[in-house]
Amino acid sequence: MYTTIATLLPLLALAVAAPTANGPCRARKQTYVAKYDGLPFQEPGPNPIPPHYYGLGYTTFQIDQHDHFIPPTSGNQWAMAFGGSGNISVPDSPPKQTFQLESLSFACVSGVPQPECAISIWGWKASAKVINRVINFPSLDPGHLVGGYIMNKTSFSWEWRDLKSVGFSIARADNGGDMYGGLALDDVKYTLNFGC
Ligand SMILES: *[C@@H]1O[C@H](CO)[C@@H](O)[C@H](O)[C@H]1NC(C)=O
Ligand SMILES: *[C@@H]1O[C@H](CO)[C@@H](O)[C@H](O)[C@H]1NC(C)=O
To answer: What are the chain's domains?
Structure first.
């Protein structure tokens, strides 16, 4: 009797571990820093960011190159939402994926001079909870040398996890009016969670 059960156990374990043709699903995490360099860029555009660049899909954001006004933090390309708003999301399939947003470089790009810019950032979580944060990019005044302007950088708290999507939108910080410009992001660091 005992011998029979002992012989069966390894078989049962195998059956449980391999429920599908693709084998068992293992939850895992992977951290990326999206720099957008080396992605094909041609003028005239559009230059969409290919799906799914380091695991994420981009709405509105395009690949754009250094305009000799504000340099990208790394390399010569960044992600640009020309109208100032766009989303970055995990694909719908496989369904259990989420990401944690860790840090990014950002700039509002309207030319010089430009007013102080308020960037609203939303996080849509797998739980359907929505979180929100506003960061500012300073006003730019004339009189700086080329290279005198740089992107700013921010980190995100632990609250910015279990995300399905993040959205961005820009407005004038002083009166909520239109910036008439774009939002550039670079070195977007996040951790993808491949859940089961
Ligand atoms: C971003 O995603 C939100 C929520 O799904 C949606 O309401 C909004 O229209 C999207 N924005 C863009 C620019 O696609
Ligand atoms: C933020 O950007 C402005 C404009 O480029 C720059 O003058 C400033 O030094 C930056 N601040 C930081 C902390 O990087």
So the answer is: 27-194 (2.60.120.1350)
